[in-house]
Amino acid sequence: MTTFTEASKGMSRAEEAALVEKTRRGDRRATRVLVDLHKDRLYAFVHRVMGHHHDSEEVCQEAFLRAFSALDTFSTQYRFSTWLFTIAYRVCLNTLRRRKTVTTELEFNTLGSVDDGPEEQLAESEAAREARHAVWEAVDGLTTPQKAAVLLFYRQDQNCQEIAEIMQVPVATVKSHLHRARARLKDLLAGKFGQEAAASGRMRIAAG
């Protein structure tokens, strides 16, 4: 069965543009389809950046409201998802500035999924759990832009150009964020598990 996330990735620009145009004309069904196509991925991204369920829901709602109220300014040269994530990221930054402090827990997809069932969790070795926890601790020390770049690259499968559009920074800046995140992970693993493990962990993430 095809999921909404899979459907959104497989949707052509023309199909997406048609949905946007129908939404502009007040078609509620088209609006609902756009929301359903993107809500899960958007919430996953926002929640990891914000680290708080209530704030994350509010940010997502505000992002969708801003997107739909400004559809007349949307350019079809971009994907709707890119535009939506750009809006959500700006709302995240504004909310974090108001909050001033934030506790964020992130993970790299190459070190396991939060969706692992009980069987997978039981089978996971103590060493793997320790390594994953170490990675989370390292990422907690990243800046918000670095966290966002890591999430978009490893969890949302966005390339550097797409991330640059979402974060509204040069591609070189995105690459710098990712490089610093990998370097932090390498240093942490080297301290906890030795140089060989650190190099191995870094290569897995670099290939991610």
List the helices and strands and how they pair.
Layout: H1 4-10, H2 13-24, H3 28-50, H4 53-69, H5 80-99, H6 118-123, H7 126-140, H8 144-155, H9 160-167, H10 171-193, H11 195-207
Q: Helical segment tally?
A: 11
Class from secondary-structure proportions:
mainly alpha
| Poorly predicted tracts of residues | 1-7, 101-123, 200-208
Strand content is under 5%
Using only C-alpha atoms, the radius of gyration works out to 18 Å
Quickly give the CATH architecture of the largest domain: Orthogonal Bundle
Largest sheet: none
Q: What is the N-to-C order of secondary-structure elements (H for helix, E for strand)?
A: HHHHHHHHHHH
The tally of structural domains comes to: 2
CATH superfamily of the largest domain: RNA polymerase sigma factor, region 2, helix turn helix motif
Q: In percent, how helical is the residue content?
A: over 70%
Describe the oligomeric state of these chains in a short phrase: single chain
CATH fold description of the largest domain: Rna Polymerase Sigma Factor, Chain: A
Question: What's the CATH first level of the largest domain?
Answer: Mainly Alpha
Shape: elongated
Summarize model confidence as the mean pLDDT: 76
Distance between termini? 26 Å
Count the beta strands. 0
